[in-house]
Design brief:
The chain has 16 helices and 2 strands. The chain is mostly helical. The protein has one domain: Na+/H+ antiporter like fold. A two-stranded antiparallel sheet has the order 1-2. Strand 1 and strand 2 form a beta hairpin. Helix 7 crosses helix 16 and helix 10 packs antiparallel against helix 15. The protein is globular, with a radius of gyration of 20 Å.
Length: about 375
């Protein structure tokens, strides 16, 4: 992740690691799948390391994935966001009033209608549940990468990360209860609430407290130039480590059911592009400049797959169809979001302002 960037500032060049993120993701998927194939008992061993139905290896990895993002958030910007209500309003509208319901619709359409002859009703329910859990989890972490690559307004992006994190604490559980109930799947309200608390609330609180105390004791310059420098790559490394674990657990299923992976991927791809273009169109209609429009549209398109995976794991198990659906979400998200970054950059002239510098990613 990049260090905190204020709106309008020029960002640094992409590192070798950042430039080839998609390559590292594919490599980690291959490593995880290979380890699961070479060591058949490894998935059971990892699955057994849990407390209160929470996978401890994944919990640790997800904490280190999200904490470096949370510690960068200046919560004073949440208050300042009220001065620019349009991008905040569009983002919240797309994330919570539209996206969950379109995901539920596409999941039902593909799994219950189009692919109905190819999968059992029970498995279709599992896939629908996993996709719904993705659809009600707007991105609060990786969107910082997408906004950074698109040269978006990082101030606005950080504000929406904070607001979405807070919104998820209150809306994810009831939204999941409602939509999964509509899908005829019973979900304990407290289970979803606990999952959000662990995977969003804990790093959010830890990030807020540590940021406040470090700045108070060491100063803001030390915090930005020293502390953030050493946490700069922690989120990405934790993401890659998480992918290895997940593909150890799901690699056999992916190899044995490639057709199912494709069936899950199709509605997810349709959902991502539909939500992106809705957000992008509303941003244009609402008069946003490019730097705000890019992150506004990508926040809704991207998913907080960490929480979705954790919830699916707790509710249905690591080897369930619901967990597989959330893992497929990870599989397709990085290459698709990089495509959306390119679309944003190539259409920047349709908006009132545009960055002056082409991201290095597109000049290689």
């Amino acid at each position: 992740m990049s260090k905190e960037v204020k709106a309008g500032e020029e960002t640094h060049e992409l590192s070798f690691f950042e430039r080839y993120l998609t390559v590292w993701v594919i490599i980690c998927m291959g490593i995880g799948t290979g380890l699961g194939f070479l060591f058949p008992g490894l998935d059971s061993t990892l699955d057994s390391i849990k407390y209160a139905q929470v996978s401890l290896p994944i919990a640790v990895a997800l904490f280190f994935m999200i904490y470096p993002i949370m510690v960068q958030i200046d919560f004073k910007k949440v208050i300042q966001a009220g001065k620019t209500p349009r991008p905040v309003g569009i983002t919240l509208f797309v994330n919570w009033a539209v996206k969950p319901f379109t995901m539920a619709f596409f999941a039902w359409l593909f799994m219950k209608v189009i692919f109905q002859p190819f999968i059992s009703p029970a498995l279709a329910d599992q896939y629908v549940a996993g996709m719904i859990l993705l659809g009600i989890a707007p991105c609060t972490a990786m969107v910082l990468v997408w906004s950074y690559l698109a040269r978006g307004n990082m101030g606005h992006t950080l504000v929406m990360v904070a607001i979405n994190s807070l919104a998820m604490l209150f809306l994810y559980a009831p939204m999941g209860k409602f939509l999964l109930g509509v899908a005829n799947i019973v979900v304990p309200f407290t289970t979803i609430a606990m999952t959000v608390g662990i995977y969003v609330g804990l790093p959010l609180v830890a990030g807020y407290i540590s940021r406040k105390e470090l700045i108070r004791k060491k100063g803001e310059k030390w915090f930005e130039d020293v502390f953030l420098k050493y946490t700069d790559k922690v989120s990405m490394v934790a993401l890659l480590f998480t992918l290895v674990i997940l593909f150890v657990l799901q690699g056999e299923v992916i190899l044995n059911k490639p057709l199912h992976v494709l069936m899950i991927a199709l509605p997810l791809v349709v959902q991502i592009f539909a939500i992106f273009f809705l957000g992008y169109g509303l941003s244009k209609w609402g008069g946003l400049d490019y730097e705000d429009a890019a992150p506004t549209s990508m926040i809704g398109a991207s998913n907080h797959f960490e929480v979705a995976i954790a919830t699916a794991t707790m509710l249905f198990g690591l080897s369930s169809g619901a967990a597989l659906a959330t893992v497929v979400g990870v599989l397709i998200e990085v290459p698709i979001m990089l495509t959306l970054v390119r679309i944003c950059w190539n259409t920047r002239d349709y908006f009132s302002r545009a960055p002056q510098k082409v991201p290095e990613t597109f000049t290689q």
